[in-house]
## 1
Amino acid sequence: MFRSLARSSPRLTILRNHLNFGKNPRYIMSVPTTMKAVVVEQTGGPEVLQFRTSHPVPTPQAGQLLVRNNISGVNYIDTYFRTGLYASPKPEILGREGAGTVAAVGPETTGFNVGDRVAWLATNGYAEFTAVPAVKTVKIPEGISDEDVMASFLSGLTVLAFAKETYPVQKGDWVLLHAAAGGAGFLMTQILKTMGAKVIGTAGGAEKCALVKSLGADVVIDYRSEEGKDWVKLVKDATGGRGVDIVYDSVGKDTWEGSLEAVKRKGTIVWFGNASGPVPPIPLPKLSPKCVKIARPTLFGYIETREEFEYYTNELFSLLKSGQLKTKIHKVYPLEDIAQVHKDLEGRKTMGKPLLKP
Ligand SMILES: NC(=O)c1ccc[n+]([C@@H]2O[C@H](COP(=O)([O-])OP(=O)(O)OC[C@H]3O[C@@H](n4cnc5c(N)ncnc54)[C@H](OP(=O)(O)O)[C@@H]3O)[C@@H](O)[C@H]2O)c1
């Protein structure tokens, strides 16, 4: 009966009792058959983001949960999949994180119940519902809002992994952090300060620089200002001519050469993003004069196992709960405004994290 009703009107809900469905998903909550979602059919500019109102709601498979997203995160990486800088199959629903309520539990999926408030890392986040792997989903503890989690989930886990494992930051280290007012940068400035580092943050424009300063950065450089254009010299001046112990560079094409100059002898550069375009292939002999170490990490390499994922999510949640880590939401955009979010991100107009309300 439910199926035929659902066929006749896509907005009718399907209600299923969780006790009777064996290997089928367990639904208790009402779930529509269609939903709002943003689909990308082919790579291109923000105009390829197609807002749809009757996209099929996915059915959770073995090991999956169906999550009704309350809020989804927008990350710079989403633009790489949109443009094709990073390859991914199309058509595709972009968006690599969400927070909301478990609406159905897939067959052979354990550890979660319908109604649990969760955050997940996967794909298909620009949608009302997402079928996500339970293994990359965590329950959100009481006292932390979905919005706080989304403003710090993918970005915050990245920052923690890169500051603890890629290069274990030491008290007293001089750190150069580019794009320090961004979604990841805003969190990283704070994490680095809690680790006792001396932070030199770069950001574009007075407002962004004031924000970075307010987080406790020791030196802030507006690398788009006349004076800040020579940010390498300013970094050298701030460190007594020595250079920094570590550079975290997610800007890429426009900053990589300066980062190589600004790092100290025996220092480390972590290149982790392409906001201005990718870092070109670097001839290895370029690293020899100063014996520089380089890393090109990705978050997902540090949270591959459930144990690793839980380690970093627990760490993040305890920082949020204790108030040691503050979040900043640039703006919550309605799902239909997704093209504007991408324009704002790529136009360097955001401070902190843009979120989407599906
Ligand atoms: N490897 C990983 O696993 C991983 C994980 C998360 C994030 N990331 C990377 O970390 C970076 C930050 O990500 P996010 O989502 O938090 O973005 P975001 O920092 O909020 O936005 C990117 C920022 O980069 C700066 N930027 C410099 N040159 C730019 C240009 N030509 N075009 C656009 N922006 C430019 C802008 O800040 P200013 O105006 O201050 O210059 C802009 O606000 C991205 O490169 C992302 O790919 C990597």
Note: Residues 1-21 have pLDDT under 50 and may be disordered.
## 2
Amino acid sequence: MHAEAPVRSVTYVSRAATPLTQTSLEALLLESRANNERSGLTGMLAVRGDDFFQVVEGPEAGISALLASLRRDPRHTDMRILNDETVPFRQFPDWRMRCERLDDYPVDTIPGIDAMGGGGASADTRTRGVPDLVRWLQARAARALSERHPSAAS
Ligand SMILES: Cc1cc2nc3c(=O)[nH]c(=O)nc-3n(C[C@H](O)[C@H](O)[C@H](O)COP(=O)(O)O)c2cc1C
């Protein structure tokens, strides 16, 4: 694997403007993955009910452009950036935009779940939850990858 310069990583939450359907989510992912492939972005979108929690990471120019697009995208609302930093390594290097629906998990089994909307958590509580939730999502992404490629499990 070639070395990469540090990348910008942004985590935000938002809410679907109209009730989210499987079809609208799939269309969103298809579009996002094609765009992200072109602009060198990777990340993760967690969905619970109509709440989004997304990590996007990659070159500064691509992230700035995506944030501008996201801010004017009428498909979601109440966008709040929870974290914006430069990181030495990508957190989801293998995913053009992994998606995880969290509706079926009992919420008290997910560390940092307060970072997502819905529960009326304060801005501080949300921000504090981000690292735990991201780690939990990373662990699930790693497991999904090893199930897909058994040789990558070791
Ligand atoms: C919750 C959510 C997540 C999104 N994630 C991405 C993404 O990862 N990459 C992307 O290119 N577009 C994503 N989009 C779509 C962008 O908002 C935008 O429609 C797309 O980048 C096209 O931008 P443009 O209309 O400025 O050309 C997302 C939209 C929503 C509502």
Note: The first helix runs from residue 22 to 39.
## 3
Amino acid sequence: MVSYKEIGLVNTRAMFAKAVKGGYAIPAFNFNNMEQLQAIIQACAETKSPVILQVSKGARNYANQTLLRYMAEGAVQYAKELGWKRPQIVLHLDHGDSYELCKSCVQTGFSSVMIDGSALPYDENVALTKKVVRYAHRFGVTVEAELGVLAGVEDEVAAEESHYTKPEEVVDFVTKTGCDSLAISIGTSHGAYKFKPEQCTRDPKTGKLVPPPLAFDVLKQIEKKLPGFPIVLHGSSSVPQEYVDIINTHGGKLPDAVGIPEEQLRKAAKSAVCKINIDSDSRLAMTAAVRKVFVEKPGEFDPRKYLGPARDEMVKLYKHKIINVLGSDGKAK
Ligand SMILES: [Zn+2]
């Protein structure tokens, strides 16, 4: 058993309370490799932003869970080396799908876990979440739960509304489970293709897709039912068009990729939404930078020469999100 406290990590409790009060959101960035982690820590150290390092089940399989946990430990030391005196870093399991997985993360130094029972019938989601909360809280580990299903690109347009989190369920769910934060569905979704072209309108000037707005009325109702309770948004990448364009003009193929406009996320960050998950945007930044080197310098074969620029691009992206979208800069001095 390794406690996250020994590694210098923190859980989300105080971080979220401050964020809800302060009207900003904590960045939750996924990582699978060293360059992503370096970029996240560098960006957060430079802006003094609290941060949630997210590891998905897929990342655990890809990078190895033992390695990831030592990388997170290394991240705390690296942050200090960069001059960040008291780094506020959470190591969080993204989309835990079983009690066993959550338990294993609690035992290996995670300070926060998500148990995602949102695809289960309501009562089963409650039971599973409650079980994880009971275990995690014994070790001071905070738990994120989910209610409502994130719309996927394959879903029928007409069915999407019914996937939104039902405001009338949230008080019962939070009370029964004791979870520390709640991921809700108000129209965000995972990946770089968040909406089908027929769900969007087209900007007549640029010909680019304009996605439908988030359901802020649902968010408002939830906030009213759970005043001050930390709300989480998944699938909140914006899919920056400049990256999509670089990828597409350098041998890639991402037609009609579309995300959540940043002004909508900025609005959400000022509300009870205190954790915003961003994964696809960093993948796009990395891919754009790597593709550019491959096309411009076809003779290059030193990975540092293309992963280095990719890392620099991610630092730029993370800092932009922290300062211009989430407003979390300067909140962990
Ligand atoms: Zn998610």
Note: The pocket of zinc ion is lined by residues 95, 190, 234-235, 277 (CB under 6 Å).
## 4
Amino acid sequence: MAIRQASLLLYIVMITAGWAYPVLGIGLLVFMALVVLSGRRKKWCGSYCPRGSFLDLVMSKVSPKRPIPRFLTSRKTWATGFALFVGLFVFQLWRAGLFGPWDGSSLMQLGLIFYRMCLVSSAVAIPLALWKNHRSWCAVCPVGNIMRA
Ligand code: SF4
């Protein structure tokens, strides 16, 4: 199976079952770490990212493929999105007690947080794909901007 199809499958499994199996969120984190550690960071968005594969292989078929709105590509929008993303992530870590001592459930709590972040960002990415361009989300995606830096 080609890497893009495999990462699309990972995305579908993650979105549909991640709430029940938070270990999938950890799996995604490990997968990302392996790609970075193997020196393929810059290939993440084009080849490995599960959501990127979903956007390219599925959403591109129903997207009008218009140009990405300019406000989405501005530095201000990116900085706002990045601050929101990090803020939301840190808030969830704090709420789950992950800044304190970890217990037996902490790793799964972290997996659930990754799942939620993935779900929320997909809830933004899909309408953007239907509205303008299947890769609109990628203009503001904090992970993608870090990977491509
Ligand atoms: S920009 Fe974000 S969603 Fe798009 S391919 Fe890269 S990491 Fe994935």
Note: DSSP finds eight helices and no strands in the chain.
